[in-house]
Amino acid sequence: MTIVYRGRVFSVEAGRHTYPNGREFETEVVRHAPSVVIVPMADPDHVMLVGQYRPSIGRQTWELPAGSLREGERAEAAAARESEEEVGLVPGHLVRIRGLYPAPGFCDEELIFFLATDLRQPPPDSPHKPDDDEDIQVRTVSLAEARRMVADGTIVDLKTAYGLTLV
């Protein structure tokens, strides 16, 4: 396999791959670092969502906060960092729920879901801020409202729709 594209977020490999049955096929694989998805619970009945513009679909979405692991970063540390960067709060308690592959037909990214509770203000000298390309709005909604947002098409992000089933 040869890297045919290398970007800031992912790379693409293309070439021949031998399958377990011994046959070879041309394949393309998107290589993406694992990502964390945080289900930040403001209280047992309310979840925090982030609104941000997604150029790939040309619209703003409402999502659970998420982001890629940095090189050498543990998933728990990435979840705490992303929570602080995107909702402005640090989880006092993080529980790793599970990992899933959202598009294994062409991409190796694993999404690792975390439940975040006991949310607190970060220390004043914290270095964690939103990325330069993020213009995030934070919204706290009841779990019932979040589930209605999935049902009525307001939430179109699959990781968020699934993440809401975990609480």
Give the SSE order as H and E letters: EEEEEEEHEEEHH
CATH topology of the largest domain: Nucleoside Triphosphate Pyrophosphohydrolase
**Major β-sheet profile:** 7 strands, mixed
Return the domain count.
2
Determine the number of helices (DSSP H or I, runs of at least 4 residues): 3
Q: Could you list the spans in which at least 5 consecutive residues all have pLDDT below 50?
A: none
End-to-end gap: 40 Å
Helix amount, in percent?
10-25%
CATH architecture descriptor name of the largest domain: Alpha-Beta Complex
Alpha-carbon Rg, integer:
17 Å
CATH class of the largest domain: Alpha Beta
Shape call: globular
Structural class: alpha+beta
Say which CATH homologous superfamily of the largest domain is assigned.
Nucleoside Triphosphate Pyrophosphohydrolase
What's the short story on this structure?
17% of the residues lie in helices and 46% in strands. The chain has helices at residues 75-87, 143-151, 158-163, and strands at residues 2-6, 10-18, 24-32, 35-43, 46-54, 59-63, 66-68, 90-100, 111-120, 137-142.
Please characterize this protein's 3D structure.
The chain is of the alpha+beta class and 167 residues long. It has two domains: 1-32, no CATH class; 33-166, Nucleoside Triphosphate Pyrophosphohydrolase, CATH 3.90.79.10. Helices cover 17% and strands 46% of the residues. The strands form two sheets. Strands 4, 5, 6, 7, 8, 9 and 10 form a seven-stranded mixed β-sheet that branches. It has a three-stranded antiparallel β-sheet with strand order 1-2-3, with no helix packed on it. The longest helix is centred in the middle third of the chain and has 13 residues, at 75-87. The radius of gyration is 17 Å and the shape is globular.
